[in-house]
Amino acid sequence: MKKRTKGILAIVALSSVVLSVTSALALNPHDIVRLKRAGVSEALIKEIIISGAIGRALISVDEIVEMKQVRIGDEVILELIKQGSITAPELDRQDLVDRTLMRAIEREKIKLDFQEKELGLLVKYISRLITDPEIIRLVHEGKIASEDYAEIVRCLKQYARGEETIEYDYNGNIDIDIHGTHKKD
């Protein structure tokens, strides 16, 4: 029973501290009178209340009074409050935009990684293809003309670099003369 009582007392004490801090930060009638005596317009006082600038500690009553004492206009004080007064919905929109951008950046990184791996595999495959002993043997035997082989290598390299190969007017088929009717160079 004693532990429960101590717990309840602790909660009550903590609640009173939170309430006193909150009320100390909020704009109260005494503060409104001070602001009015300092020359703050009712429109600015209304904006201070609506924005919750005092409660959110964007600016203090003392700071506003001090600014009015050196003849800083209401418009400047209002702008100062507006610059620091991003509302919760605005913050949510900014967070949403930030998260959307981060996801887009992450997707682009994944795409780039995939493309880099794909290009690496393509380069490896093309290197193997153009240096394959069987293809080289076919060139030496005259079954693939050396000009055709050079053209194939050039087109494969262009393809690997992502360049157009429009001069290569074949339909994608490589004509290999396995019967040996091409003459050896």
Protein architecture, described:
- The chain has 185 residues and is an all-alpha fold.
- It folds into two domains: 84 residues, no CATH class; 54 residues, no CATH class.
- Helices cover 70% and strands 0% of the residues.
- It is rod-shaped.
- About 4% of the residues have low confidence.
Low-confidence stretches: 17-24
Helical/strand content category: mainly alpha
Q: Determine the N-to-C terminus distance.
A: 105 Å
**Could you tell me the radius of gyration in angstroms?**
39 Å
How many structural domains in the coordinates?
2
Average pLDDT, rounded to a whole number, is 75
Into which percentage range does the β-strand content fall? under 5%
Count of helical stretches: 8
Largest sheet: none
Q: Helix-strand pattern, N to C? A: HHHHHHHH
* Basic shape: rod-shaped
Percent helix:
55-70%
Number of strands: 0
Q: Which features does this protein show?
A:
2 domains; 70% helix; mainly alpha; 185 residues
SSE arrangement:
Blueprint lengths: L1 H24 L3 H9 L4 H10 L9 H9 L4 H11 L3 H43 L2 H8 L5 H15 L25
Helix pairs in contact: 3-5, 6-8
Short description:
This protein has 185 residues and is mainly alpha-helical.
